[in-house]
Amino acid sequence: MQAAMARSFVMPTHITMLLGLVLLLAGVVSGIQLPFIGKPLMPSPISHEEERYAPGFTLRHIFHHGTEDHPKLHLRKDVGPSYRMASGRRSFHVSSRLKTVTRMSQRDPDFIESYLHYARTKGAVAIDFDWTHQDIMVPDITDRDTMVEFAKVTADAYVEDPTAGDWIDVGLPYNETDGFGWDSNGLRGHVFADETNTTVIIAIKGTSAALFHSDGDTVTSDKVNDNLLFSCCCARISYLWSTVCDCYEKAYTCSQSCLESALYAEDKYYRATLDIYRNTTSLYPNANIWVTGHSLGGAMSALLGRTYGLPTIAFESPGEQLAAQRLHLPFPPIPLNEITIWHVGNTADPIFMGVCNGPTSVCWLGGYAMETQCHAGLECIYDTVNDKRWHISISNHRIRPIIDMMVSYNTTPECVAPTNCQDCYDWNFD
Ligand SMILES: *[C@@H]1O[C@H](CO)[C@@H](O)[C@H](O)[C@H]1NC(C)=O
Ligand SMILES: *[C@@H]1O[C@H](CO)[C@@H](O)[C@H](O)[C@H]1NC(C)=O
Ligand SMILES: *[C@@H]1O[C@H](CO)[C@@H](O)[C@H](O)[C@H]1NC(C)=O
């Protein structure tokens, strides 16, 4: 089964130069639409190259989940071949390998969400989960081209949708009288699947802030969520800052239960991410699901991956460990280096490195309280400061230069467990 899956292959509808070259190397003649799915493309012997680049992922659905004023809004757009062709969306090719992962044996959304609710309301109770070991396909993070493809998938999730009108309501129907412009706020999930629907990738769209990206459409809610997820106490930096929740009690003292409820609020990104996952799994109930994202989207993907035990590649994510703890996300009883959540970043990105803070940083000047530093997963760090003489700058957080940078390396960095990282240690949480 696994071998058959690894060898299945269908030509993408749109091939970029780079991908074309890759396919050529794989011994594939481009331009042919292959009718047979799930069979080896070339006569035997199958080379390693072919297995590495099968199967191809294409965009299938876009979810848009409302937040802030429209938390019940949840729309889905189904994407077919003609749309992909018209919008120039290509397919993505990644290599995978079999790995034994440890995750909760009971992982359906109803169970997980009721656990999250229970853990939050009952406080820090030790819950004895039933853990299971499963052999599943995971992305091959030692393969340079696979990493680059994942980065491109996250970049694709930023691409605005050129067509409008064919959204399907999957939450409560949107009430037009509530106001227009629902698409200016909220979280977006782009769902990709391989040709057999065996593996599905959810790419979560992150920060559009003018500070981090050139132009975006979800700036306001992104900023609120950034400040909620990555600050010690509701972005209560000083009395001059407007806070995103009311958990501050007194100097360096913050209410823990208040923070936990704020993060889990219906109108914030974490719950929206859970809804996108729930809807995706109901479309692909038997699929092996992977998650990815960049920046805030990277952090959300890591939180989702942690919640459900999904292989996750997060790019340039701010430290999300504190949020994972506040949400009581399950941590499997395995050595940290066995975790399949990979945080990819570079040393010249102050957001990823957790140094975009302090009164003179661009983050603070922009009103972003990016105080956390710790990632809850393995860190795969490109040392661009030493290798490339990059200066620490917010521009090294953007996904485009990151993709070029990753291509310029022949290998991928080793992914290692961070050592004893603790955020906000000067605060008391009661
Ligand atoms: C839409 O909102 C308006 C004003 O808030 C309300 O009067 C109306 O009943 C709502 N319609 C639906 C279908 O919920
Ligand atoms: C894969 O899922 C799509 C829905 O996105 C469905 O139309 C298609 O028939 C499925 N293909 C296979 C091979 O199951
Ligand atoms: C999709 O998500 C909405 C919440 O936004 C939920 O009410 C609905 O039940 C979900 N649908 C499926 C099929 O999971």
Overview of this protein structure:
By secondary structure, this protein is an alpha/beta fold. It has two domains: 1-54, no CATH class; 55-429, no CATH class. The protein has helices at residues 2-7, 17-25, 48-53, 81-86, 109-122, 144-156, 219-229, 256-263, 269-283, 296-308, 321-326, 350-353, 362-365, 384-387, 399-408, and strands at residues 56-65, 74-78, 92-93, 96-104, 131-139, 168-169, 187-194, 199-204, 248-250, 253-254, 288-294, 312-315, 341-346, 378-382, 415-416, 428-429. The strands form three sheets. Strands 1, 2, 3, 6, 7, 8, 11, 12, 13, 14 and 15 form an eleven-stranded mixed β-sheet that branches. Strands 9-10-16 form a three-stranded mixed β-sheet. The chain has a two-stranded antiparallel sheet with strand order 4-5. The chain is globular, with a radius of gyration of 21 Å. Residues 1-54, 176-182 and 209-217 have low confidence and may be disordered. One 2-acetamido-2-deoxy-beta-D-glucopyranose is lined by residues 60, 196-197. Keywords: Hydrolase. This is Alpha/Beta hydrolase protein.
